[in-house]
Design brief:
The chain is α/β, with parallel strands linked by helices. The chain has helices at residues 58-67, 74-78, 85-103, 128-137, 152-165, 182-193, 209-218, 232-240, 251-254, 257-267, 280-293, and strands at residues 2-20, 23-37, 42-47, 71-73, 118-121, 142-146, 171-175, 199-201, 223-225, 246-249, 270-273, 300-303. It has an eight-stranded parallel sheet. Strands 3-2-1-4 form a four-stranded antiparallel sheet, sandwiched between helices. It starts with a strand and ends in an 18-residue tail after the last strand.
Amino acid sequence: MKYSFQFYPYQRRFKQPLKTSHGSWEIRKGVILQLTDELGYVGLGEIAPLSWFGSESIKQVLNFCRQLPSEITDADIFAIPSDLPASQFGFESAWESVYLARFEDKNNQNKSHKRINFSALLPTGKAALNEWKILWDQGYRTFKWKIGVASIQEEIDIFYHLTQQLPLEANLRLDANAGLSLAQAEEWLWVCEHTKIEFFEQPLPITQFKQMLNLTQRYSTLLALDESVASFEHLQACYQQGWRGIFIIKPAIIGSPRLLRQFCQKYEIDAVFSSVFETSIGKKAGLRLASELSNNHRAIGFGLDNWFIKDDFSSELEHFL
């Protein structure tokens, strides 16, 4: 099958910079893809790279898209190399979107999908103490709070205040973005052992996988891999090395949706699907995978609409989004 191919770069500005142990992030940049098949059916996809998380850079994405011809084939799409994982996801998602437009009844596409709950991302620092109330009123019951940004004692103090404020039915997740030392991780885990949290994401750098495994044996708090499983190859490797805790899967940067489906269906891992601040196009593709592949009743990390101001898209893109 042949497809007419077009692409459109975009950027979105955060309401306030997103601060993590990786640094401060102000603008999300990506690319919207459009494939049109020989019958006129249109499919949209999105490439939303996160280079500091292990994917290709936006520069690599643009260079790749610019070197493609205006007409591409199935073979071109499935030949995208694994060192361009965000591009793999974007093109395969657009291909799936064409397929759905052609062969499925649009009114029945989502009838068999499971109900999905969303978690909301809190701002770092003391701002979380007020923001959770706004998000609670919007219907969120699961919250994620990023740590490893300020001093550990300051963050633990805020954490105690936050857990005292949250209603009993609320779920709280911590995310260190691989930014803690082993001693800091153990200090946090000691705190978590005496406080209710759902799980603790990636306390240690990806080079300390064995230490992460050891922590799962020494503490009852559930641990999740995030940066360690950013690519499909790393996801496979961590499973093969014995990880049976939670896997945070960011579909927009993990690579091929086709290969991810095969892996998750075979091993039935405890997967929590999460956003990389993509637009509604990438989000739709990610939610389709989450609905198919989530085995536990955990909220997924796509509750991020409160992080953006009005989209800074060109008028050419407005009808897509």
